[in-house]
Specification:
The protein is of the alpha/beta class. The protein has a domain at 5-256: Nucleotidyltransferase, domain 5 (2-Layer Sandwich). It has helices at 5-14, 60-82, 123-133, 142-151, 166-175, 182-185, 200-209, 217-220, 236-242, 260-267, 322-337, 344-354, 396-422, 441-450, 463-476, 484-492, 505-520, 522-531, and strands at residues 18-23, 27-33, 39-46, 50-52, 55-57, 91-96, 102-104, 162-164, 180-181, 191-192, 197-198, 224-225, 258-259, 275-280, 284-289, 302-305, 311-317, 366-368, 385-387, 428-432, 454-457, 498-501. A seven-stranded mixed sheet has the order 16-17-15-14-20-21-22, sandwiched between helices. A five-stranded mixed sheet has the order 3-2-1-6-13, sandwiched between helices. It has a two-stranded antiparallel sheet with strand order 4-5. The longest helix has 27 residues, at 396-422. It starts with a helix and ends in a 7-residue tail after the last helix.
């Protein structure tokens, strides 16, 4: 809630605002905030990826149209609520689904359809690079996509002039500046945290592997910027593209573009060492800010950075809420078939609360929400699968608990590896994402999964769009010389309400029982992949 509407109207007209734009897997969202980090207005646009020629992708047309729709909804909300048109903004930040592969030629033409993080096609490249670098290279990283194209001898490689990620592309589109935030850069190519730049020795090794091409990797990667730096300004062409009403003026400064992992860390105030956050959406990932870099090469753990360049251990699972969303959509369809009307938010709230009435282990059932492959459990492809025995207690509460448990199951496997192999200490876990808009339910389940207290802030539902707006605001206030950690503590989150839930021992034991069943049943999921075609029609 805005504390002072009159001051906010003045802030809008004077440009004392920051805008965050996030390109998530299922939604593009815009959030405009004032200097008190309150949300003035927001807009969103739903979209879906497509499976094209073996890759998960979004078209450039959908990217642009979705951005425009989300911006238009936000700007119309400003006019409706405050009676003024949005013409100036103090700063802008872009957030996008992490990593993936977008390669362009000298003329700025996309050489191959955008390959998203969800495309698990780079196993050979990731494995070879991990061996060469002695540094874990996940399949979704940009460099793995590039090297897999090399192994595949793809023709487009002869024309590469620039490669980037989705957030880097949008930033380039709107500012004309090739730039990337260090957090997102760390998912393109390994970072040397001492220099805050790409790792030179690994670049030399990669250039040896790709010696037959006219380019070298450093020249085609975007320059790195850290939080607080300005990374370009809105061009006239960019202003016209973002705001089709042509009211928005150019010249607005941009902070470095980041991935949703980095902006999620900001949105939960999880950039200080020994803190961690869990971000829930189509995928789920935990980001643990490390006191030092990992001592071992762990294929389940990514080594990335915060937007300020501190090392982070990241556990990423490709699949989280897609299957849960599909089931809830089915329940909504049933309700509508009965002649009733209900919005999706109500369906989520009612159905998720049912899980609190369930048996601790989910009634003897198990689910695999594998819409795509899952690296940590060794799957190149996935088949959403729900399994029960005749003796299972098949009721609504148990079904909902099973879907919540399975959304976090792969994350749990990765967290256990990090704890056992590196003895990582975590003082605090914060959670964010749309799942936590329903009070306590997702938080209670996650506390059982992590077996640790989990906090959700009032801002939890805003996610990366709000986080990128905060990063943009930090850039505007950088003259204070505060670190990002201090800026968040002293200004952004000083008075933000936090709700902490401690794990319930019964839930913890129930989840442990569920995980034993889940791990044993992975062979069933593999059989589904082996014997049921992706279109389900064989």
């Amino acid at each position: 809630m805005i504390t002072n509407p009159l001051n906010t109207k003045r802030a809008i007209t004077e440009g004392n605002t920051s805008l965050g734009i996030e390109f998530g897997s299922t939604r593009i969202k815009t959030v405009l905030i004032n200097n008190d980090f309150e949300v003035i207005a927001s807009g969103s646009h739903e979209w879906e990826n497509h499976f094209l020629d073996g890759y998960w992708t979004y078209s450039l047309a959908d990217i642009t149209a979705g951005m425009q729709a989300a911006y238009r909804e936000m700007a119309e909300q400003v006019e409706k609520e405050y009676g003024v048109s949005l013409q100036v903004i103090g700063s802008i930040g872009i957030s996008g689904m992490m990593h993936g592969y977008m390669a362009f030629d000298h003329a700025g033409e996309l050489l191959t359809p955008f390959r998203t993080w969800r495309s698990t096609t780079t196993g050979a490249a990731a494995g070879q690079l991990t061996d060469t670098f002695q540094f874990n290279i996940p399949e979704r990283w940009s460099i793995a996509h590039l090297y897999q194209a090399v192994l595949n001898e793809e023709e487009h490689l002869n024309h590469i002039d620039f490669m980037t990620t989705l957030s880097g592309y949008i930033h380039w589109l709107l500012t004309g500046t090739k730039a990337i935030g260090i957090g997102e850069a760390s998912g393109m190519f390994p970072i040397d945290v001492s220099t805050q730049d790409y790792n030179d020795s690994m670049m030399e090794s990669f250039d040896e592997l790709t010696a037959g091409y006219t380019w070298n990797v450093k020249n085609i990667l975007p320059p790195i910027y850290t939080a607080g730096e300005q990374a370009g300004t809105l061009t006239a062409a960019g202003a016209g593209m973002l705001d089709v009403s042509k009211k928005l003026q150019p010249g607005i400064p941009f902070c470095p573009p980041e991935g949703d992992a980095g902006t999620g860390m900001v949105a939960t105030n999880s950039v200080r060492k020994r803190t961690g956050n869990v971000s829930v959406g189509t995928s789920v990932f935990a980001m643990i800010v490390l006191e030092k870099e990992l001592q071992k090469v762990l294929p389940e753990i990514d080594l990335v950075t915060t937007p300020a360049g501190s090392p982070v251990g990241m556990i990423h699972a490709n699949n989280c809420s897609s299957d849960l969303n599909a089931w809830l959509t089915l329940f909504k369809e049933f309700y509508e078939a009965m002649g009733q009307t209900v919005d999706m938010n109500t369906v989520f709230e009612v159905m998720l609360k049912q899980s609190l009435e369930a048996e601790p282990d989910g009634g003897g059932m198990v689910s695999y929400g594998y819409f795509s492959g899952e690296t940590i459990t060794g799957f190149q492809e996935g088949r959403p699968l729900f399994v029960r025995s005749p003796e299972s207690n098949f009721n609504l509460a148990n079904v909902m608990r099973v879907h919540l448990y399975t959304a976090f199951a792969v994350l749990k496997i990765g967290m256990d590896i990090l704890a056992e192999e590196e003895n990582i200490a975590i003082d605090k876990i914060l959670a964010h994402g749309g799942l936590f808009k329903t009070p306590l339910v997702g938080q209670r389940i996650l506390a059982a999964v992590m077996n640790a207290p989990v906090s959700v802030m009032k801002t939890a539902g805003e996610g990366g769009a709000w986080g990128s707006a905060v990063l943009a605001s930090y850039m505007r206030s950088k003259s204070t010389r505060e670190s990002l950690e201090d800026f968040l503590d002293n200004h952004v989150f000083e008075d933000v309400e936090e709700q902490e839930v401690h794990p319930d021992e019964t839930d913890v034991k129930g989840f442990e029982t569920y995980m034993k069943r889940y791990k044993k049943g992975l062979a069933v999921e593999q059989a589904a992949v082996d014997h049921i075609a992706g279109n389900g029609r064989n």
